[in-house]
Design a protein that fits this description.
It is built from 13 helices and no strands.
């Protein structure tokens, strides 16, 4: 049997970690429509107009105009607009890319309890982009967002426990957090959970479950597909068949959960 320790170190320490190879994309405004907290009808109207420009909904897509409307609503205290303005600054859409400004607006939304803003602010703290790098502050924001079942924050918190960043290194805690996020369909967590199975960290080494979770993650992460093939070399044909069956059943389960959450 091959040792997967080297693969583990090379492949995935996501979000603000030195060996990061999987890029995170902040949740775009179009996926946050309808999530605004009430801050007055005018702010809500301005936010909706910003979303229309960001999406190109009935108007030409224009991030500059989107940023203008988001700013008007954000200055009135609308948390969704604050998040989306932070997103535009982080990605450089419609405004010059500015991590400091992104952190300012994420913080405003985070303090109002927005879990995605809390997670994204945590990432900036973990990477030192726009703020002084602080693993302790990153964990603070990750925990707040994870308590609201944000899957990305839950996975990021797992990464901190995995590496022992501002917390005692704890494979069991990392495994549990990755599993929670993986069960919510978050691909990076699925990949990391698979690698813990492959390495026998917090659990007995299990290539069947490792393959199954990598198969799920592979739909979004190319590196997961490559790892899946490496894991397959350690498996029998029967084990691969079982793993594929597990992945298929888990995929149906996750799809069902996704449909339920939309109702």
């Amino acid at each position: 049997m091959k040792s997967y320790g080297a693969i583990w170190l090379a492949i995935l320490f996501p979000l603000g970690c030195p060996a990061d190879v999987v890029t995170r994309t902040p949740t775009p405004p179009s996926e946050r429509s309808g999530q605004a907290k009430v801050a007055g009808k005018e702010a809500e109207r301005q936010y909706r107009q910003g979303v229309r420009y960001a999406e190109g909904d009935g108007v030409p897509q224009d991030y500059v105009r989107a940023a203008q409307f988001y700013r008007l609503a954000a200055e009135k205290g609308l948390s969704a607009a604050q998040y989306d303005l932070g997103y535009l600054y982080e990605t450089g859409k419609g405004v010059p890319r500015d991590f400091k400004q992104a952190a300012i607006w994420y913080r405003k939304a985070a303090l109002q309890g927005d879990p995605e803003a809390q997670n994204n602010l945590g990432v900036l703290c973990a990477t030192g982009k726009g703020v002084t790098r602080s693993d302790a502050e990153a964990i603070h924001w990750y925990r707040l967002a994870a308590a609201q079942n944000d899957p990305e924050a839950t996975s990021n918190l797992g990464s901190m426990y995995l590496q022992g960043r501002a917390v005692k290194r704890d494979f069991e805690q990392a495994f549990n957090l990755f599993q929670k996020a993986a069960e919510r369909g978050y691909a990076i967590a699925q990949n990391n959970l698979a690698l813990m199975y492959a390495n026998g960290q917090a659990v007995a080494r299990d290539y069947v479950w490792a393959y199954a979770w990598l198969d799920l993650a592979a739909t979004q992460i190319q590196a997961s597909a490559q790892l899946r093939e490496k894991v397959a070399k350690e498996m029998t044909a029967d084990e691969i068949a079982r793993a594929r069956d597990l992945a298929a059943r888990k995929r149906l389960e996750l799809n069902h959960k996704g449909e339920e959450s939309k109702r």
